[in-house]
């Protein structure tokens, strides 16, 4: 899949923008704060319904405007689609595909992208929630149906937590927990599906991460990843440091369901005392290792960068294999400035085979020459130049 044309209205710092894009590499270049990332962020939003920089849609709407519009003309296998999304301050968001109204959550079916940005270093060094969002985001792209499963699980979790908090406030009267079993059944049903899907996608990523890490870093440091499931923890109610042991065994759905039910029984008293659900997919993690040691805490800065890059490249390869829309758009947002010369060249080699690659950079010379064929200069939220090539420093 490629984006042939991008149109923005009142998105971030753009009152209006029209950008023609080409197959292969496209470089957006300009000083920091000019709006380069805003352009690629809009494409990332169409494929994920989220921003890699902020958690609220409101920040995406230009100051003083009531709505923002993103339009993208997509092409795949000889077919073109016009995808449109309107983000509203005080009304539900709206979406269209070829001028026909669709639900916004359906947009990822038509547009897929994989974005890597400096913030992704948190995949290796950050909290478990960051890794959960990463895995679930990939699952949502591979199987949009799961977006509904995640939403249902979050809703049941909130209801169950509300019940536990109410019981704690009322002195833990058993009568206040009479409906807990109903919520338990639904939580286990949805949670088992989420755990099974996460295990499967982590297993699928594993060999691709190995290949991508060697391609980017130029060495084999035995990168590996394994799920960490709270339902198999001896102390799932403990708020301790992240586990240094992943779950590498094969688990059937029946085993996952039974483990979830058993874990809920083990932590029942602690849950009543604390008023919160203490085990389940919302407390799981993924363990990343290099040479058998946890990457978090042991990997150097360069190794952490290589691991994070490898995870995103593995995602792109997995989507390329599975998606009906072909290659995802690969987005590298302000990445090359953080890499040494060797890693820059190896990353360029790793991505140049994708149908379309979007790159942002503050300095033109940071980007390997083979990725500069189509360059767009940005200044203060304005497209000031689009050229086939450019050789001046910015």
UniProtKB/TrEMBL annotation:
PANTHER family tied to this protein: DNA REPLICATION AND REPAIR PROTEIN RECF
Binding residues for ATP: 30-37
Function: The RecF protein is involved in DNA metabolism; it is required for DNA replication and normal SOS inducibility. RecF binds preferentially to single-stranded, linear DNA. It also seems to bind ATP.
UniProt subcellular location: Cytoplasm
Keyword DNA-binding: yes
Domain RecF/RecN/SMC N-terminal, first and last residues per copy: 3-362
Protein name: DNA replication and repair protein RecF
Species whose genome carries this gene: Herbiconiux moechotypicola
Major localization listed first in the record, in broad terms: cytoplasm
Alphabetical list of InterPro entries matching this protein: DNA-binding_RecF, DNA-binding_RecF_CS, P-loop_NTPase, RecF/RecN/SMC_N, RecF_2
HAMAP family registered for this protein in UniProt: RecF
Annotated keywords: ATP-binding, Cytoplasm, DNA damage, DNA repair, DNA replication, DNA-binding, Nucleotide-binding, SOS response
Family to which this protein belongs: Belongs to the RecF family.
CDD domains linked: ABC_RecF
Pfam families reported for this sequence: SMC_N
């Amino acid at each position: 899949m490629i984006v042939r044309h991008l149109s923005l209205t009142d998105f971030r710092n753009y009152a209006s923008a029209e950008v023609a894009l080409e197959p292969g590499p496209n470089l957006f270049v300009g000083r920091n704060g000019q709006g380069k990332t805003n352009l690629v962020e809009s494409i990332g939003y169409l494929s994920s319904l989220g921003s890699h920089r902020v958690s609220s849609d409101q920040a995406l709407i230009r100051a003083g405007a009531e709505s923002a519009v993103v339009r993208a003309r997509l092409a795949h296998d000889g077919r073109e689609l016009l995808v449109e999304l309107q983000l509203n301050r005080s009304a539900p968001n709206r979406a269209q595909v070829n001028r026909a109204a669709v639900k916004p959550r359906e947009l990822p079916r038509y547009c897929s992208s994989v974005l890597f940005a400096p913030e992704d270093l948190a995949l290796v060094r950050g909290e478990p929630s960051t890794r959960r969002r990463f895995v679930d985001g990939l699952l949502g792209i591979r199987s949009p149906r799961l977006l509904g499963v995640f939403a249902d699980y979050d809703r049941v979790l909130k209801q169950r937590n509300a019940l536990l908090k109410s019981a704690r406030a009322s002195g833990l009267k058993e009568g206040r927990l009479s409906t807990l079993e109903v919520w338990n059944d639904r939580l286990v049903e949805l949670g088992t599906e989420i755990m099974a899907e996460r295990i499967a996608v982590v297993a699928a990523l594993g060999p691709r991460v190995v290949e991508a890490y060697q391609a980017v870093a130029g060495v084999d440091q035995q990168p590996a990843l394994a799920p960490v499931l709270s339902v198999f923890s001896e102390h799932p109610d403990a708020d301790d440091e992240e586990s240094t042991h992943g779950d590498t065994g094969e688990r059937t759905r029946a085993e996952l369901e039974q483990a979830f039910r058993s874990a809920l029984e083990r932590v029942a008293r602690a849950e009543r005392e604390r008023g919160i659900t203490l085990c389940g997919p919302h407390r799981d993690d993924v363990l990343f290792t290099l040479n058998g040691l946890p990457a978090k805490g042991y990997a150097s800065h360069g190794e952490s960068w290589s691991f994070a890059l490898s995870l995103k490249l593995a995602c792109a390869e997995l989507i390329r294999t599975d998606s009906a829309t072909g290659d995802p758009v690969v987005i590298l947002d302000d990445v090359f400035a953080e890499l040494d010369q060797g890693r820059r060249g190896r990353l360029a080699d790793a991505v140049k085979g994708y149908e379309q690659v979007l790159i942002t950079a503050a300095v033109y010379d940071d980007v390997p020459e083979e990725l500069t064929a189509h360059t767009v200069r940005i200044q203060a939220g304005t497209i000031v130049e689009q050229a086939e090539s450019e050789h001046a420093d910015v």
